[in-house]
């Protein structure tokens, strides 16, 4: 057994249409598609982290158990860009104060303000950057 800490090597999203999701996330994150191997499509690796899409035979079953927080200097402007790319805002999360979006297959992610401490959570865990 080794004493080295483990590192996350890649994040993989199961997809009904990996090509469509790869195009969406490639445009959103400005990470070009760099490889297609078997059921996988890969975006350019950045900061050591891979990001890929794997062909799945079934639709997304329900709410994500894990999601991404994507930092932006202007979350409202980013919402418009995401919607133009085929994503949508998930209004059912508005009460929490977060800007929760979904990609074209319904995978949830948040757009948060860039910078440490810029979310401004209250004691209940609600954000206030959209106020």
Taken from the alpha-carbon principal axes, the silhouette is globular
Report the total helices.
2
What fraction strand?
25-35%
Rg is: 16 Å
Helix content: 10-25%
Overview of this protein structure:
- 18% of the residues lie in helices and 32% in strands.
- The chain has two helices and eight strands.
- The protein is of the alpha/beta class and 131 residues long.
- The relative contact order is 0.17.
- It is globular.
- The strands form two sheets. The chain has a four-stranded mixed β-sheet, covered by helices on one side. A four-stranded mixed β-sheet has the order 5-8-7-6, covered by helices on one side.
- It has two domains: 7-56, Signal recognition particle alu RNA binding heterodimer, srp9/1, CATH 3.30.720; 67-131, Roll (2,3-Dihydroxybiphenyl 1,2-Dioxygenase, domain 1).
């Amino acid at each position: 057994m080794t004493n080295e800490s483990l590192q996350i090597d890649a994040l993989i999203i199961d997809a009904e249409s990996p090509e469509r999701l790869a195009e969406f996330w490639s445009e959103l994150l400005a990470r070009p598609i760099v490889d297609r191997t078997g059921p996988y499509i890969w975006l350019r690796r950045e900061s050591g982290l891979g990001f890929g899409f794997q062909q799945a035979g079934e639709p997304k079953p329900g709410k994500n158990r894990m999601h991404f927080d994507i930092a932006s200097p202007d979350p409202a402007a980013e919402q418009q860009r995401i919607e133009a790319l085929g994503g949508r805002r998930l209004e059912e999360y508005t009460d929490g104060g977060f800007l929760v979006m979904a990609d074209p297959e319904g995978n949830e992610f948040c757009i948060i303000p860039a910078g440490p401490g810029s979310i401004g959570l209250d004691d209940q865990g609600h954000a206030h950057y959209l106020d």
